[in-house]
Specification:
- The protein is mostly helical.
- The chain is built from four helices and four strands, in the order αααββββα.
- The termini are far apart.
- It has a two-stranded antiparallel sheet. Strands 3-4 form a two-stranded antiparallel sheet.
- The protein is rod-shaped and about 110 Å long.
- The chain has a domain of 125 residues.
- 59% of the residues lie in helices and 4% in strands.
Length: 192
């Protein structure tokens, strides 16, 4: 019973190492699959949360777009409702700003600062950078609500009113950033 020939030892080592190698590779592969699955699940939950937030903010953003560009249902949006929409948007986007990429919050800030004159004094509401009356109508008489003269101070000076192209560009940039954050490709310029 002498020594084993080296070929027999090599066969034994290969015979033992082969199943161990396969088991180790299987374990590593399974671990990577679990990580990938967890990453996919996390991304799915993040997208679901972003969709819930989008469903909450998109109608308010559209309300502001209509109010400031005199389109759609602008006649039903009072100055007080526009200011309230800003408050609600500020609250929601400041709470959830870290759920989105930084570009979403930056685009939101650009849009809001185009529409509102902020920091107008301690305890003062932001002022609407819009006209009370202009070529598109008169908010005092052409609307479905009763004008309250107290709203007059809610508007910036006429020279500070946001132009329609500026408002539309800010809205489009914000909505494009939101769309990208949902994993949806933004429409090409030709289809926009």
């Amino acid at each position: 019973m002498g020594s084993w020939p080296s070929l027999e030892i090599a066969k034994l080592v290969v015979g033992v190492l082969t199943p161990l190698s396969v088991a180790l590779l299987g374990w590593l592969f399974s671990r990577q699959l679990k990580r990938l699955d967890l990453s996919n699940w996390t991304n799915q939950k993040l997208i679901e949360k972003r969709l819930v937030i989008y469903d909450e903010i998109a109608p308010r953003l559209n309300k502001l777009l209509c109010f400031f560009t005199w389109i759609g249902y602008w006649k039903t949006v009072s100055p007080a409702e526009a200011i309230q929409a800003k408050r609600e948007l500020d609250r929601t986007l400041n709470i959830y700003r870290h759920v989105f990429e930084p570009e979403v919050y930056e685009a939101y800030q650009d849009f809001i600062h185009a529409l509102f004159e902020t920091y107008t004094g301690a305890g003062q509401d932001a002022r609407l950078r819009a006209l009370i009356f202009g070529p598109d109508g008169d908010r005092r008489s052409d609307c479905g609500y009763t004008w309250d003269e107290a709203w007059t101070v809610s508007f910036s000076e006429p020279g500070r009113a946001a132009g329609k192209p500026e408002v539309r560009a800010g809205y489009k940039a914000l909505m494009a950033a939101l769309t990208r954050s949902l994993g949806v490709a933004a429409p090409s310029p030709a289809s926009a």
